[in-house]
Specification:
- Helix content is 49%, strand content 20%.
- Strands 1, 2, 3, 4, 7, 8 and 9 form a seven-stranded mixed sheet that branches. A two-stranded parallel ribbon has the order 5-6.
- Helix 2 runs antiparallel to helix 10, helix 4 crosses helix 5 and helix 4 runs antiparallel to helix 10.
- It is globular, with a radius of gyration of 25 Å.
- The N terminus is likely disordered.
Length: 343
């Protein structure tokens, strides 16, 4: 009797130990989750949200499930203008910083934001940013001050200006209330004779709807994604070039905790993210413009040479000179970068 009891006890003990071991193995196999914070809604179904989802899926796949992103969409942790501080302070491990909103904080990394209009396309701007980071350590150093590390780049599409009324000449911009941010856009709008109105992307829909704004610089995909084309039916195709959108950026301490292989995977994904996003953007731009014909949105092709003359407007030139001075103070050969951002 006692022997049978001992056998039952031994079996129970073995079963218990086996369960504990399996539990330990299960815990050990759980993915290390990096908290990804973004202002972009998951259901936006634009090139940005699609590419972010792809990046998250690929990160988990390429690390064999060892790591994954825990996505916090739609500003649930931090709004677009709060993300740099949230990442710096550790409220997130990785996220997207809308660079043009912070020209004072990140002047080097916002170089493109000081040179509007400029002639480069989406992929060209992204490749320029990658190269500047490789060539000039000051670009990384600027982020390191805030405990940040760049992983990838997302320029926007070729920008035009969406308006509630048709505009076909420079004179017709006069008096229009036009959304701006950063330094270059306010100066550009002044050169057009308009009134600059500082406002984030998320607030512009209601402003266009209520007549607070007459126009906003934007590309077709973003205009459609944020539904501006519901309340503004004229897209003025002016040569602003690809505006810079955001950097996929990590908390530096979170980055340094990762092993070398995982870092390499992340940085490789950052480079692929640029290409995948750019291709997605090109396809979606064509789809949006074709769809506009049915939605009653009119595309007005503005004379390129006439608009490009605005680079000679004194306030526009002053903004560019401000960046050049800052870059030289930091030891960056500004002339070469200026050449790459000029018509």
């Amino acid at each position: 009797m006692r022997q049978r009891h001992n056998h039952r006890f031994q079996r129970a003990a073995i079963t218990g130990l086996f369960a504990l071991a399996c539990g330990a193995l299960s815990l050990g196999a759980q993915a290390d989750k990096l908290k990804f914070i973004t202002y972009k809604p998951q259901n936006a179904n634009d090139a940005h949200s699609i590419s972010l989802q792809w990046m998250g899926d690929e990160f988990k796949k390429r690390t064999g499930g060892k790591h994954e992103f825990q996505m916090f969409w739609g500003g649930s942790v931090a709004k677009d203008r709060e993300i740099p501080d949230a990442l710096s302070g550790g409220a997130g491990d990785i996220g997207d910083i809308v660079t043009p909103y912070f020209p004072d904080k990140f002047p080097l990394n916002n170089a493109v934001g000081f040179f509007i209009p400029q002639p480069n396309s989406t992929i060209e701007i992204g490749l320029l940013m990658e190269r500047w980071h490789r060539q000039y350590p000051q670009f990384d150093a600027e982020l390191k001050k805030y405990n940040l590390k760049v992983i990838g780049y997302r320029p926007l599409g070729d920008y035009g200006i969406i308006c509630t009324k048709p505009i076909r000449t420079l004179a017709e911009f006069k008096g229009k209330r036009i959304r701006t941010y950063g330094f270059a856009y306010p100066a550009l709008v002044e050169g057009l004779g308009g009134t600059p109105v500082s406002m984030s992307t998320t607030d512009a829909y209601e402003a266009l709807q209520r007549g607070i704004l007459d126009c906003s610089p934007i590309d077709p995909v973003l205009a459609h994604g944020w539904k501006y084309d519901e309340v503004a039916k004229y897209y003025i195709n002016v040569p602003l070039g690809a505006s810079f959108g955001h950097m996929v950026t990590m908390n530096l301490k979170s980055y340094e905790k990762l092993d070398a292989q995982t870092r390499a995977i992340l940085e490789g994904l950052g480079r692929e993210y640029l290409v995948r996003y750019s291709v997605e953007m090109a396809v979606m731009t064509d789809q949006v413009v074709q769809g506009w014909k049915k939605k009653g949105v009119t595309v007005i092709n503005f004379p390129r040479d006439e608009f490009a003359k605005l680079v000679n407007y004194p306030a526009v030139k002053a903004v560019r000179e401000k960046w050049i001075k800052r870059a030289k103070e930091l030891g960056v050969p500004a002339e070469k970068i200026v050449e790459e951002l000029s018509f």
